[in-house]
Amino acid sequence: MSHCELQITEIRVKLTADPASKLKAYCSVTFGDAFVIRDLKIIEGGRGAFVAMPSRKICDHCTRCGHKNHLRARYCNQCGQALDGDRAVRSGDTRVRLHADLAHPIHSHCRELLHESIMRAYHAELERSKQEGYTPTSFDDLDGSDEFSADDYLVELQPPRREVDRSGGAATSH
Ligand SMILES: [Zn+2]
Is this structure's pTM higher than 0.85? Predict the structure, then answer.
């Protein structure tokens, strides 16, 4: 168990209904019986489940009308201009970023504590869900409130699309 000044006093997990979905659950985390963060998500990635912090989609401006659209939008919401839905993915050799976290741990101890605690709560909730008379957690107003794409998160986890040097020559890196 990692050391962290923050004391997690409650974790609520709402499992998603569709077993095929990469989005496994929504969570809320309460610190010190005093402060709650909602809309964390548990997403099944290629290398296991991870916790996504509450976040906002990063936007850019339409080239025609200047309206802001999220980076994977294929059409401008304002003027209908066709956009390259992969423009962020194509943007070179830095890691793709489609979301900005709205709340997140600052150091690795806290990140590990949060991850461990949430995954434990998630697995406990999974076990509970198999029992008879199970009542799913409800966040009332938050469930399915936004269009959400787990794939967008998984894109961000992929390594940068650096062009592979196929020349077979000497290494060209600095
Ligand atoms: Zn536009």
Answer: no
What is the tally of structural domains in the chain? 2
- The one-letter amino acid code at 84 reads D
Which residues lie across from 99 on neighbouring strands? 57
Hey, what amino acid is at 25? A
pLDDT digits (tens, 9 = 90+) for 84-93: 888 887 766 6
State the Cα–Cα distance between residues 67 and 60, nearest whole angstrom.
Answer: 8
Is 129 found in the same domain as 65?
Answer: no
Tell how far the Cα of 77 is from the centroid of ligand 1, in angstroms.
Answer: 7
Question: What spacing in Å lies between the alpha carbon of 64 and ligand 1's midpoint?
Answer: 5
Residue pair 134/128 in contact (Cβ under 8 Å)? The answer is yes
Three-point CA angle 6, 10, 13, nearest 5° = 125
Q: What is the DSSP letter of 161?
A: -
Q: How far does the centroid of ligand 1 lie from the alpha carbon of residue 74, in Å?
A: 11
pLDDT at position 169: 46
Decide if 112 contacts 2 (C-beta within 8 A). yes
* Residue 10, domain member (yes or no): yes
